[in-house]
Amino acid sequence: MDIHAYLEEFEDxxxxxxxxxxxxxxxxxxxxxxxxxxxxxxxxxxxxGERAYLDEWPLSEDQKLAVLARDYNRMLDLGGNIYFLSxxxxxxxxxxxxxxxxxxxxxxxxxxxxxxxxxxxxxGNRSIKGKY
Length: 132
Hints:
Blueprint: H1 3-9, H2 21-36, H3 40-48, H4 50-54, H5 61-69, H6 72-77, H7 82-91, H8 96-101, H9 108-116
């Protein structure tokens, strides 16, 4: 089997970014920045000047803009890992589930209820290309 073809199939899952080695490499510094927020001193520096703090990290401009906009879907596209990115929304005082709701087309109450009801149906959510 061609590993590249196999990995490309992961890009066909609607609303999902599989955290592959390629994504890990692309997001290494983004994720390291997010993890830096585990330290109180870094959180304080971040809150005082977000852009200045980001500029200390070798992130792409696209990654920096996504962070500043709190565009978590874009951060995921650019190699962010949700468990690392959680340090950003935790620093903002936002619960995990509420932050996840911003990555959907639902309000937080709608998202919470959908999850309590068992999550999204896989019907119609199996393939971007529509082959499943």
